[in-house]
Amino acid sequence: MLLGIGRRIATTVVTLFGVSVVIFVILRLLPGNAVTASLGVSAGLLTHAQLVALNHYYGIGQPLLNQYADWVGSTFSGNLGISLAARVSVASLIGSALPVTLELAIAAMLLGLLIGVGFGVLGALRPGRIADDIGQGVAVFGLGVPSFIIGTGLVTFLASTFHYFPSSQAFAGLFSNPWLNVQQIFFPALALSLGIGAAIMRTTRAAVLEVTNLNFTRTARGKGLSPSAVTWRHLLLNALVPIVTMSGIQLGYLLGGTVIIEQIFVLPGLGRLLVTSINNRDFPVVQTLTLLFATGFVIVNMLVDVLYTVIDPRTRSR
Amino acid sequence: MSTPWTPAPAPAAPPAPLPTRLDDVAEPERRSLLGALVHNRNGRVGCVLVAIVVLAAIVAAAGGTPYSPTYADASAALKGVSLHHLFGTDQFGRDVFSLVLQGIGVSLEIAVVAVLIAGVVGTVAGIVAGFLGRWPSLLIMRVTDILFAIPAILLALAIVTALGPGWLNSALAIGVGYVPIFVRVVRGPVLALREADFVRAGRVLGFSRTRLLLRHILPNVGGAVAVQTSLALSWAVLAEASLSFLGLGPPPPTASLGEMVSQSSSLAGIAWWTLAGPSIAIVLAVIGFNFVGDGLRDAFDPRARNR
């Protein structure tokens, strides 16, 4: 089991290395360079000596391999570079934005699991009944309506009906003003969670239905176990692997989704930082943020794989 | 043409006897694609929705929109839904319905090109990874894993940032994000098919690799590719709308559905139709292609076949 986990960590490191190369290559396609990006038109007014000095400062003109090594090396040592637009260190920008996105992502995932597993199990236990129909309706809605439409709709609905503007007050920290923070996180998390919940619900429903017809479930019922014990210990536990898999897959969509939802609800998270940086052509921030998102995704996927061995003893022998 | 142990073509059909392939023996007869699709409830609904969306795109391409999408009548700004303006008008007095039709056209164009890129590249890579030797396979699967590790929409964002906005760039960015899925979907069946009896038989008979690939393996992954193409179109429409929502879609004056949604957020309180129009279009396309994909999946039932 430990060997398997070790091997999984090794592949993760290799993948992350590849990810950093891909991001580096893509963003090197950028027309212009750090100098023109930070100075705009006025870059044309630089004297030759100034240009040479700036090029040296940003590492332009060095072989690509050196630039890449520089980037990876300094990233590892914790120096993420300086934002071209905000003129502060990228690390401090990320430090203030990361908790917001983390909180949003976790809240959305929890809501999604609640909706998905809840309706999925209810629907599978009594297919065709009201709870199942509601669940199926929510699933079609969540799969078909993109989160940014749900988000835009929510914002306008809240504004026109309750005169509530989520962006009217500065974002409150979870610990400094918990009540306001919950208000500000709940609606964006809800907008994000419907799509995730829908996918998890379909997986849960199918997985539970599949287990329902197996012999051990019939035996469990036959020997007089209470329905709740059958549901929790026999059905749900055995349906857990596909549910966890689907949740891991949804996390990728979730990370992408936060980028857009933070824009709509004006949350000062990583996604908003990314879009602002893209618009400002703030290339060190874009590069590092993309890597950060990918790293988060890869690591969670690794954890999901490790989780299999915990929840399903059958996968341990491999 | 015919192989030693296939039943001879019926003698009663002299004009152009169908080429008899080993596949015909290995595979049970299938219903026609459309027949199987319509047989399935989701598939039926999906077909209707996709037909509506495609029709809208054709109307827009043929210049059949009720008003010119760029025609702004300031005196008719923010008019509600009426027979003259099916989806009302926006803040400049443009007809939202005409804008939506044009937006659907642009969106479909980008989505189709994106999926074409992803489908061709991904299928070829998947076949190579499944059929050729160990090293190409290992290389392709590593690259796939790496691309897979970057959430697709973020990959698209990074690529659009690098290339700059524009419809071909959007299509490229969206397409690249979907390549790994095609690779995985194709490689699995190819690996299984490589050891299937009819392919082994072909190999024993001395068929060339190309022939085995094109005539025996490719037709059998067609189903999986078709399902994935449909799901990819659904995703591509969504991704295009997301990119243009963030202001990274094709630059104006091209109408785009995502941008319309983003513009409507400040208006929707007083003019809900500016949000409803483009949203309906996006949802119809996303659900439509998704349902067609579901229907195709049920029709081909790759699960039952690949086991």
Descriptive notes:
The complex is a heterodimer of chains A (318) and B (307). Chain A is mostly helical. Helices cover 76% and strands 0% of the residues of chain A. Chain A contains 13 helices and no strands. Chain A has helices spanning 2-28, 34-39, 48-58, 64-76, 90-125, 130-144, 147-162, 178-212, 215-222, 227-238, 240-264, 270-279, 283-311. Chain A is globular. The mean pLDDT of chain A is 81. Chain B is mainly alpha-helical and 307 residues long. Chain B has helices spanning 22-26, 33-39, 41-61, 96-131, 134-149, 152-163, 167-194, 197-204, 209-245, 257-264, 273-300, 302-306. Classes of the chains: A mainly alpha (318), B mainly alpha (307). Chains A and B meet through helix 1, helix 6, helix 7, helix 11 and helix 12 of A and helix 5, helix 6, helix 9, helix 10 and helix 11 of B.
On the 0-100 scale, what is the average pLDDT of chain B? 80
Strand content of chain B: under 5%
Oligomer: heterodimer
User: What is the 3D form of chain A?
Assistant: globular
Which stretches of chain B are poorly predicted, pLDDT < 50 over at least 5 residues?
A: 1-14, 24-29, 302-307
Please work out how many helical segments of chain A DSSP would assign.
13
Share of β-strand residues of chain A: under 5%
Structural class of chain A: mainly alpha
The best one-word shape of chain B is elongated
Mean pLDDT of chain A: 81
Short description:
Chain A has 318 residues and is an all-alpha fold. Chain A is built from 13 helices and no strands.
Features:
heterodimer, A: 318 residues, mainly alpha, B: 307 residues, 0% strand, disordered N terminus
Itemize the secondary structure elements and their pairings.
The complex is a heterodimer of chains A (318) and B (307).
Chain A: H1 2-28, H2 34-39, H3 48-58, H4 64-76, H5 90-125, H6 130-144, H7 147-162, H8 178-212, H9 215-222, H10 227-238, H11 240-264, H12 270-279, H13 283-311
Helix pairs in contact in A: 1-13, 5-6, 5-8, 5-11, 6-8, 7-8, 7-11, 8-10, 8-11, 9-10, 11-12, 11-13, 12-13
Chain B: H1 22-26, H2 33-39, H3 41-61, H4 96-131, H5 134-149, H6 152-163, H7 167-194, H8 197-204, H9 209-245, H10 257-264, H11 273-300, H12 302-306
Helix pairs in contact in B: 2-3, 2-11, 3-4, 3-11, 4-5, 4-7, 4-9, 4-11, 5-7, 6-7, 7-9, 8-9, 9-10, 9-11, 10-11
